[in-house]
Amino acid sequence: MKKIGPYTKKVFEHFQNPHNMGKIKNPDGVGKVGNIVCGDVMWLYIKISKDKKGKEIIKDIKFETYGCLAAIATSSVITDLIKGKTIEEALEFNRQEVVDILGGLPPIKLHCSVLAVDALLEAIHDYLKKQKRPIPKKLRERHKILEKEKKEIEKKYKEWTKTEETLHEKRKK
């Protein structure tokens, strides 16, 4: 795949024309994750419905990402890959698929693919919790890790996170 500097042409395509960017009105699940090192923040919104066989699928998925071009590109790709999938399929999603579709990422940017997958997992966790449904062990464990990281970020960057949340709320209106 053709490269432009450290990025592939595919990364630039998704960055310049991201798919499924924005919010879902009244989402069924919301995942918010951030990275303490680079400062990227991602919100991922999902809408759930049932397919013809009665299985729950992710009917719609959108994102808002405040970060670098790799973060935006990985967010765009994950929404393309997950839309129409069952919750079970989405839970088994592997971040390497995102990286492969983009033709690779510089090693220092691989954390962006983790952020996109973590935002998806958090949105599914949020949905299952709201529905008072059992949360798979693997998802519970990842959620605990993400919650701990979120608290560390909020503690270390209290003013920044408060400002970021305020700005995000204003954008919603």
Question: Could you describe the 3D structure shown?
Answer:
There is one protein chain. This protein is of the alpha+beta class. It has one domain: Sufe protein. Chain: A. It has helices at residues 9-16, 69-82, 87-91, 95-101, 111-130, 137-156, 158-172; strands at residues 3-4, 7-8, 29-34, 41-50, 56-66. The strands form two sheets. The protein has a three-stranded antiparallel β-sheet. A two-stranded antiparallel ribbon has the order 1-2. The radius of gyration is 16 Å and the shape is globular. It starts with a strand and ends with a helix. The mean pLDDT is 86.
Task: Give the structure's gist in a few sentences.
The protein has 173 residues and is α+β, with helices and mostly antiparallel strands. 51% of the residues lie in helices and 18% in strands.
Helices and strands in order, then pairings?
Elements: E1 3-4, E2 7-8, H1 9-16, E3 29-34, E4 41-50, E5 56-66, H2 69-82, H3 87-91, H4 95-101, H5 111-130, H6 137-156, H7 158-172
Antiparallel strand pairs: 1-2, 3-4, 4-5
How many β-strands, per DSSP? Answer: 5
The fraction of residues assigned to DSSP E strands is 15-25%
Assign the structural class, choosing from mainly alpha, mainly beta, alpha/beta, alpha+beta, or little secondary structure: alpha+beta
Q: Termini separation (Å)? A: 41 Å
CATH fold title: Sufe protein. Chain: A
Query: Could you say how many structural domains there are in total?
Result: 1
CATH class categorisation? Alpha Beta
Q: Nearest-angstrom radius of gyration?
A: 16 Å
Largest sheet: 3 strands, antiparallel
Strand order of the largest sheet: 3-4-5
CATH architecture: Alpha-Beta Complex
- Level of helix content? 40-55%
